[in-house]
């Protein structure tokens, strides 16, 4: 166990300040204080970090093109148990820990749920004490910073590496590796008739590793997130390649080469649901995959792990299809470097790889053009081609129709389907919530499920409760510990014990008080940043997530418009409306026009409603700029209502739904994604359900029968708000209103907004009514917290460990190896 002593900490802190900046504490800025504290903590953990690198057991490598870490300081202090001592020590030095916490940069190396899940999983792998490490990309620019200009989203580069470095990371130049692009593949037989494969005339790019410690909670486990930066090779590497040498010929070419290399880890693609097929993206994918797989082999060689023993010693997890090239890259090393036969290599590879699918949206499925793959990654292309050839032969042997073979092939019509590659080449395929997995099995991947059902399994997502409850809502965490002791911190199933207090008015009042305090804090933030005054006594109704048509922020804002009309229609009657604040936070992908139009609509409606004196503050709309992890930590603890209103079947899981529930918000939801599991935990009496069922949505999609125009013409209230989009009722809204109108009416409302909005409004009315009964509300809130334990990512990770990574390859997979 790492221990801390306040006196020594203070000395260490002063010394470090002097070493790093040659100045006194008084002269330091908050950023400098943060850097110093970070280095002091890194010094303290260095021994344990080193120790955790030794592989005594099976090691898991989690490959993800995104890790949305968020700030690390508070969560590291919590996991180390250092917070109190450091807070006091700093206090005695005249420094406020909370100010330092706020000056940490927030690395936004991810878009949304997928990247954040990867970060929660790292926390949980370390906290349950396995050797589990991440491989990713060290993007120079993370997800763009969002600004609103004239109510529209404007994207500003996220320069998170202010001085080109990040204090938690350690660069490890002697572990740099070479990644090879383009060139030609030579196959020759050597003297002993062995096939020798060489890669000629390639473009070498150096992958420079940066290690970030991932600290487990209350144990000695410190794992590593290794993110790679792309650079031109240093001299030692350059020697090995004719390409690098040729670049010396002209200064201009040398600059071009520098750009080629550095561009790879320059920016995160800001797209969370659309596959764009750009060359640079494929370069990024191969970059971190090749570096990571080579790194694993290097470690295995160092620890004298034989290739045959690999499946017992390592598990490689492919987070969505972006790291799918792990499969051919591993095959490449086994074939070309280790000299194994195809069958031997395949046998090892399939026993090591597992894959998670995160979406059933067609437009998000990665398909790479064969031509691009052939040119950029010739050896990968050859290996994928061979995997495909063997697989397709196998299917034909089984007598399947050509139609079916076509659907299941990895390569078809000039394209490589990355999901098919992952399914064929992994021993485990999982979805991220029960409904999602069911849809994979029964709809989207049904052919594969029929073929190899034993590979498919569900792993309902989870969240790092240490960050999302203990760190971000300390008052609530303290209350819980006071009531039921602290066992829940290690094992969240103990939260269930809170149910004992469901009739205890003191506890319920305290719960309400804590929520109120969090609301006041958020109201202050909004006043300072948006200059909008909101009433902490109003219901805080929150929808924070990426902006996407299927997530239906549009339904939420159209309902606000309905309420606005209701107030105006009854302006003399002084309607007894429960005051409500509708809070939005969402970034739209820069090229996603409809999403950007919806942002503009929300901002315009906010201006209209917030500035109309007739509303008398009964409803307010706030769109918080630049939503991300740090803001989520402020917003979620303050929410009364959690909006989880996606079109049923479209949201694979959702994870903010779990964060809100754990912080005592009540869920307003369709039975989509993991909302189903929330419903299983608390029942329909403790949440607000509405909307089409999965079957209804699937039936509409298969057989038709939905007409948004009919609804529009038959429902006067609906017609009124839809017309508002185009009749000038909303000041500032121009052509964007027409775009949204067309999506709803001309293109038949793909996401059933108009079909579900009546039921949604009813559910909102139930919320309004219930909020008046504070005791009942607080009881429901308590029941939600008490039943949220299952959503800790520790539970999820333990399931991955037991059913996938440590269990390894199923017998059926072994028997079926092609
Ligand atoms: O993954 C999300 C799902 O939409 C959400 O339902 C689920 O809870 C979460 C974790 O399983 N998917 C994403 O966040 N996807 C991306 O961010 C993404 C990023 C790059 C891409 C495609 C998708 O190229």
End-to-end gap = 48 Å
Number of E strands:
23
Figure out the total of helices.
36
Give me the secondary-structure category. Answer: alpha/beta
What is the helix content?
40-55%
What ligands are attached or bound here?
A: ligand HBZ
Q: Approximately what portion of the residues adopt beta-strand conformation?
A: 5-15%
Q: What Rg is obtained from the alpha carbons, in whole angstroms?
A: 27 Å
Major sheet attributes = 10 strands, mixed
Catalytic activity: [(1->4)-alpha-D-glucosyl](n) + phosphate = [(1->4)-alpha-D-glucosyl](n-1) + alpha-D-glucose 1-phosphate
Cofactor: pyridoxal 5'-phosphate
Protein name: Alpha-1,4 glucan phosphorylase
Keywords: Carbohydrate metabolism, Glycosyltransferase, Pyridoxal phosphate, Transferase
In words, what does this structure look like?
With 818 residues, this protein is an alpha/beta fold. It is built from 36 helices and 23 strands. Strands 1, 2, 5, 6, 9, 10, 11, 12, 16 and 17 form a ten-stranded mixed beta sheet that branches. The longest helix has 26 residues, at 505-530. The model has no long low-confidence stretch (mean pLDDT 96). GO terms for molecular function: 1,4-alpha-oligoglucan phosphorylase activity. Pfam families: Phosphorylase. Its cofactor is pyridoxal 5'-phosphate. Allosteric enzyme that catalyzes the rate-limiting step in glycogen catabolism, the phosphorolytic cleavage of glycogen to produce glucose-1-phosphate, and plays a central role in maintaining cellular and organismal glucose homeostasis.
């Amino acid at each position: 166990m790492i221990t801390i002593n306040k006196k020594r900490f203070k000395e260490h802190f002063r010394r470090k300040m002097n070493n790093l900046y040659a100045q006194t504490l008084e002269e330091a800025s908050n950023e400098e204080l943060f850097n110093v504290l970070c280095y002091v903590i890194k010094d303290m953990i260095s021994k344990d970090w080193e120790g955790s690198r030794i592989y005594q057991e099976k090691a898991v490598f989690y490959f993800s093109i995104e890790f949305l870490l968020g700030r690390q300081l508070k969560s590291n202090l919590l996991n180390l148990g250092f917070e109190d001592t450091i807070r006091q020590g700093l206090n005695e030095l005249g420094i406020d820990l909370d100010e330092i916490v706020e000056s940490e940069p927030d690395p936004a190396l991810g878009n949304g749920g997928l990247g954040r899940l990867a970060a929660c999983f790292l926390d949980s792998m370390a906290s349950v004490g396995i050797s589990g490490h991440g491989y990713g990309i060290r993007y120079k620019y993370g997800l763009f910073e969002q600004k609103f200009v004239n109510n529209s989203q404007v994207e500003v580069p996220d320069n998170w590496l202010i001085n080109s470095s990040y204090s938690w990371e350690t660069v490890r130049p002697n572990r740099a590796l070479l990644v090879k692009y383009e060139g030609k593949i030579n196959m020759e037989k050597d003297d002993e008739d062995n096939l020798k494969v060489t890669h000629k005339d390639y473009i070498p790019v150096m992958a420079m590793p940066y290690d970030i410690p991932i600290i487990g909670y209350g144990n000695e486990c410190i794992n590593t997130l290794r993110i790679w930066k792309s650079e031109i090779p240093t001299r030692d590497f350059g020697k090995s390649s004719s390409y690098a040498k040729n670049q010396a010929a002209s200064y201009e070419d040398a600059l071009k080469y520098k750009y080629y290399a550095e561009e790879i880890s320059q920016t995160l693609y800001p797209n969370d649901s659309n596959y764009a097929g750009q060359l640079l993206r494929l370069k990024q994918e191969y970059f971190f995959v090749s570096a990571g797989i080579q790194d694993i082999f290097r470690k295995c060689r160092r620890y004298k792990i034989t290739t045959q023993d690999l499946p017992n010693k390592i598990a490689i997890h492919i987070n969505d299809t972006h790291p799918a090239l792990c499969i051919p890259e591993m095959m490449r090393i086994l074939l070309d470097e280790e000299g194994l036969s195809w069958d031997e290599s395949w046998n090892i590879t399939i026993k090591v790889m597992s894959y998670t699918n995160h979406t059933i949206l067609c437009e998000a499925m990665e398909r790479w053009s064969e031509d691009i793959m052939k040119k950029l990654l010739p050896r990968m292309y050859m290996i994928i081609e061979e995997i495909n050839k063997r697989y397709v032969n196998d299917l034909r042997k089984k007598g399947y129709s050509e139609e079916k073979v076509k659907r299941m092939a990895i390569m078809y019509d000039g394209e490589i389907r990355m999901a098919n590659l992952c399914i064929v080449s992994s021993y485990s395929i999982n979805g991220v919530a029960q409904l999602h997995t069911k849809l994979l099995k029964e709809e989207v991947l049904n052919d594969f499920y029929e073929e190899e059902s034993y590979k498919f399994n569900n792993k309902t997502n989870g969240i790092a409760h240490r960050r999302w409850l203990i760190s971000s809502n300390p008052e609530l965490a303290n209350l819980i510990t006071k009531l039921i002791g602290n066992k829940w911190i290690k094992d969240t199933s103990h939260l269930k014990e809170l149910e004992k207090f469901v009739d205890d008015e003191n506890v319920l009042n305290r719960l309400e008080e804590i929520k109120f305090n969090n609301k006041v804090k958020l109201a202050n933030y909004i006043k300072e940043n948006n200059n909008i005054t909101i009433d902490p006594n109003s219901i805080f109704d929150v929808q924070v997530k990426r902006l996407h048509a299927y997530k239906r922020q549009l339904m939420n804002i159209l309902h606000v418009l309905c309420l606005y009309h209701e107030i105006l229609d009854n302006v003399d009657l002084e309607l007894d409306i429960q005051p409500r604040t509708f809070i939005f936070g969402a970034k739209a992908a820069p090229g996603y026009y409809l999403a950007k139009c919806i942002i503009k609509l929300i901002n315009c409606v906010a201006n209209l409603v917030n500035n109309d004196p007739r509303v008398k503050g009964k409803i307010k709309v706030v769109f918080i700029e630049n939503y991300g992890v740090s803001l989520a930590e402020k917003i979620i603890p303050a929410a009364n209502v959690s909006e989880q209103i996606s079109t049923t079947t479209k949201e694979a899981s959702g994870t903010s739904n779990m964060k809100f529930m754990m912080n005592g918000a009540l869920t307003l939801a369709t039975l989509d994604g993991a909302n189903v599991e929330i419903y299983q935990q608390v029942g329909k009496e403790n949440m607000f359900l509405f909307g089409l069922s999965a079957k209804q949505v699937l039936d509409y999609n298969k057989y038709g029968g939905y007409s948004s125009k009919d609804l529009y013409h038959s429902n006067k209230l609906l017609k009124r708000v839809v017309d508002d989009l185009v009749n000038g009722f909303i000041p500032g809204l121009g052509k964007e209103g027409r775009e949204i109108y067309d999506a709803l009416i001309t293109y038949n409302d793909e996401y059933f907004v108009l079909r579900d909005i009546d039921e949604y409004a009813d559910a909102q009315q139930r919320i309004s009514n219930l909020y008046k009964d504070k005791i009942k509300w607080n009881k429901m809130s308590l029941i939600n917290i008490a039943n949220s334990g299952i959503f800790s990512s520790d539970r999820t990770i333990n399931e991955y460990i037991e059913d996938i990574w440590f269990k390894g390859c199923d017998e059926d997979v072994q028997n079926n190896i092609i």
